[in-house]
């Protein structure tokens, strides 16, 4: 037995309530934690800078657990512990696992029905309804395929992939609606997506989190950055409405389109800065702060940091990974495919969603007559829920598991992406294909979007939330959504 092994075993005997049947990776309580200096080999400097004395002679102890204790020493030194990667299953096995991972994928039975409804020329109401139901599980699978591609890249590229394909379903639906000239539907659906993420999803996430804890804490810095960017984007959207309201500009005129397209370019540039800010310069602000038992929140131990005791650290996912992780408590993303297999499913699911979006948008006009609802309600309520249902479920699930940082990342991050990327992208796409899509969303729509963002900003400013705040946000969404049953959006 080496001197390092003897030192580690000798120190472990002094830990109160330490169980040799339990791995150190099982995260002992902070009150049971050993001083970090006691886990270091002789000759190593302790936190005061003094050399440690040689350990007493080790008794004939069992060698079990040495490797796991060395894992703690490796983590303290700033070197990630070595883990053998799990073998990648065959393509068919990985596909089966992905398609049977969640119960929402059972809704894939609506996929052939949606295609049949279009080919057999069923009513527009049936085509619209069946294709909406078919897109729901495909949106989830598109996200899963994106994650699988991201597992074969580094953290920065993976973050860019998730940012790019985070709202791919909604983007595809909007593009087909734009091609068909449904400008009102495109505008209302984009605003509906922003409000559904900020009020509906965040509200339900706060309620779900309140079921498990009276008060849920989260990283207020990241939340404030998202709400600030949301307000900035809504400022850009409000300029055409203000100018038109004061009679200084004609809606859909040359000046309106010019200012809208210029603003879209500025917002896209701001989105690029936001991605660089999130993934490079200020990445730590978007990492989930780990919790220790009892509710205390501690930063991840970095190289060279002096800390008196070994504390519980939680695993940080791809949204904010760290090389200095003490203990891993969450499951890593399972790799189901090779890079080529993941790209195959990413491309295939995108193509299928594109076809269904073609069917869905073509039936909107007839569906509003069949269901006796106006296009504004379809665009503001139905289409955003269809495009983001998988993300909505993820945010609520994460909040219920007390992972509010991830829940807010999904809700506010998605709303920010729509306002800074999807909206200006659609304006520039309309410019390219000859569709006069502008940023004049109407005075009413712009006003409620601005007020909703301000309300959310106040809700997340203090870094904690509860179920009552969630109920307030959800109530606000229900009131706004109901108003669109009686309001018809007009682009002029």
Automatic annotation (TrEMBL):
Residue intervals of the Sodium/calcium exchanger membrane region domain: 126-279, 343-480
Keyword Ion transport: yes
Keyword flag Magnesium: no
GO cellular component: endomembrane system; vacuolar membrane
Topology in membrane: Multi-pass membrane protein
Gene3D superfamilies cross-referenced by the UniProt entry: NCX, central ion-binding region
Keywords: Antiport, Calcium, Calcium transport, Ion transport, Membrane, Transmembrane, Transmembrane helix, Transport
UniProt GO MF annotations: calcium:proton antiporter activity
Protein family per UniProt: Belongs to the Ca(2+):cation antiporter (CaCA) (TC 2.A.19) family.
NCBIfam families for this protein: cax
PANTHER family linked to this entry: VACUOLAR CALCIUM ION TRANSPORTER
Protein name: Sodium/calcium exchanger membrane region domain-containing protein
Protein species of origin: Diacronema lutheri
């Amino acid at each position: 037995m080496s001197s390092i092994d003897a030192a580690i075993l000798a120190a472990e005997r002094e830990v109160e309530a330490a169980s040799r049947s339990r791995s150190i990776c099982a995260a002992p309580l902070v009150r049971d934690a050993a001083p970090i200096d006691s886990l270091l080999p002789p000759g190593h400097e302790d936190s005061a800078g003094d050399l440690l004395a040689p350990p007493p002679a080790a008794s004939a102890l069992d060698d079990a657990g040495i490797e796991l204790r060395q894992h703690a020493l490796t983590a303290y030194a700033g070197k990630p512990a070595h883990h053998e990667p799990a073998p990648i299953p065959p393509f068919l096995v990985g596909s089966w696992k992905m398609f049977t991972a969640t119960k929402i994928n059972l809704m894939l039975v609506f996929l052939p029905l949606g295609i049949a409804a279009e080919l057999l020329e069923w009513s527009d109401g049936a085509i619209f309804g069946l294709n909406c139901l078919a897109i729901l599980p495909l949106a989830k699978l598109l996200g899963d395929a994106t994650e699988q591609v991201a597992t074969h890249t580094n953290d920065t590229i993976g973050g860019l992939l998730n940012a790019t394909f985070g709202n791919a379903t909604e983007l595809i639906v909007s593009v087909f609606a734009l091609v068909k000239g449904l400008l009102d539907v495109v505008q209302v659906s984009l605003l509906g997506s922003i409000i559904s993420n900020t009020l509906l999803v965040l509200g339900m996430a706060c309620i779900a989190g309140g079921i498990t804890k009276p008060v849920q804490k989260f990283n207020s810095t990241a939340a404030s950055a998202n709400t600030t960017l949301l307000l900035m984007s809504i400022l850009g959207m409000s300029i055409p409405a203000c100018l038109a309201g004061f009679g200084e500009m004609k809606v859909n005129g040359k000046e309106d389109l010019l200012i809208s397209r210029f603003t879209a370019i500025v917002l896209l540039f701001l989105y690029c800065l936001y991605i660089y800010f999130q993934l490079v310069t200020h990445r730590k602000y978007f990492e989930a702060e780990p919790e220790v038992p009892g509710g205390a929140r501690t930063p991840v131990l970095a190289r060279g940091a002096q800390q008196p005791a070994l504390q519980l650290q939680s695993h940080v996912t791809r949204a904010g990974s760290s090389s200095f992780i003490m203990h891993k408590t969450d499951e890593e993303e399972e790799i189901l495919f090779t890079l080529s297999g993941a790209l195959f499913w990413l491309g295939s699911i995108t193509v299928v969603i594109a076809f269904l979006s073609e069917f869905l948008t073509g039936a909107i006009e007839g569906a509003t007559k069949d269901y006796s609802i106006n296009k504004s309600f379809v665009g503001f309520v139905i289409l955003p829920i269809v495009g983001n249902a998988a993300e909505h479920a993820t945010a609520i699930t994460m909040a219920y598991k007390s992972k509010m940082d991830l829940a807010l990342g999904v809700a506010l991050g998605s709303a920010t992406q729509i306002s800074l990327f999807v909206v200006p992208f659609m304006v520039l796409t309309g410019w390219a294909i000859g569709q006069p899509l502008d940023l004049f969303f109407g005075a009413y729509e712009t006003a409620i979007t601005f007020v909703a963002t301000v309300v959310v900003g106040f809700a997340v400013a203090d870094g904690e939330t509860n179920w009552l705040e969630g109920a307030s946000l959800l109530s606000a969404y229900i009131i706004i959504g109901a108003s669109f049953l009686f309001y018809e959006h007009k682009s002029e």
